[in-house]
Amino acid sequence: MTKAGSKGGNLRDKLDGHELDLSLSDLNEVPVKELAALPKATILDLSCNKLTALPSDFCGLTHLVKLDLSKNKLRQLPADFGRLVNLQHLDLLNNRLVTLPVSFAQLKSLKWLDLKDNPLDPVLAKVAGDCLDEKQCKQCANKVLQHMKAVQVDQERERQRRLEIDREAEKKWEAKQRAKEAQERELRKREKAEEKERRRKEYDALKAAKREQEKKPKKETNQAPKSKSGSRARKPPPRKHTRSWAVLRLLLLLLLCVAGGLVACRVTELQQQPLCTSVNALYDSALRGLRSHDILRWVLQTDSQQ
Description:
Elements: E1 3-4, E2 11-15, E3 18-22, H1 29-36, E4 43-45, E5 66-68, E6 89-91, E7 112-114, H2 122-128, H3 134-229, H4 240-267, H5 274-291, H6 294-305
Parallel strand pairs: 1-4, 4-5, 5-6, 6-7
Antiparallel strand pairs: 2-3
Helix pairs in contact: 4-5
Subcellular location: Endoplasmic reticulum membrane; Microsome membrane; Nucleus envelope
Pfam families: LRR_1, LRR_8
Protein name: Leucine-rich repeat-containing protein 59
């Protein structure tokens, strides 16, 4: 067994035949760390050293059975103080403790506890009671352990409740994200469908315009032969009147020429010419022939009478 320190004198540590003496006024956090490095220590007295805190390595002294931390200035114990599972005797008299760490509930071997002269939380102070004798200190250890176990259970429940709330919140957030992603996918799908429909309409419009362009030359080609064949095209109006007038003009011109020739041959000095003689003879023969016709003679007589 290793014993370190005693109340009212020097701190003495005996380990493997080596002795370490430190005055109480020289004890600070550095030698405390050194003490925490003694894995076989079972009894440790650190009282009256003005300690304000214990290093985290201190809880590595899992072989401690008896620990005296009385008459210091400890405001709190390390969070993992419950690692000292073999601790049976704990003196925390006259410190500045308000609460105990939740891990305190793991000190299942604790049988003696003194928490007097600490500004404890009212609930914890009522549970701890006085520690004026051996019996009361044992009752304090038992009641405080039960209380800390209840606190641990309550904190675990609260932790589970918060975890459940966080899980529910996470589920809601995930559901919201899924709904948002589904909405975005639906929106992208709808936009894609609209874009596809727009392109299809543009393609159909271009195709229809192309068909119209292809139909126009065909119509013109189909109409041209019909007009040439005359199956449906209108025939140009007959030009009978034009031809008749041309014939009449020609006849009138010939008559004028003949009349002019007759006048020239009968009135002018040309009547002695051989050509005019022939013309005059022909004219006289024609006139006698016409006079021999009854109707013409009648017309000529009527004209002469008028």
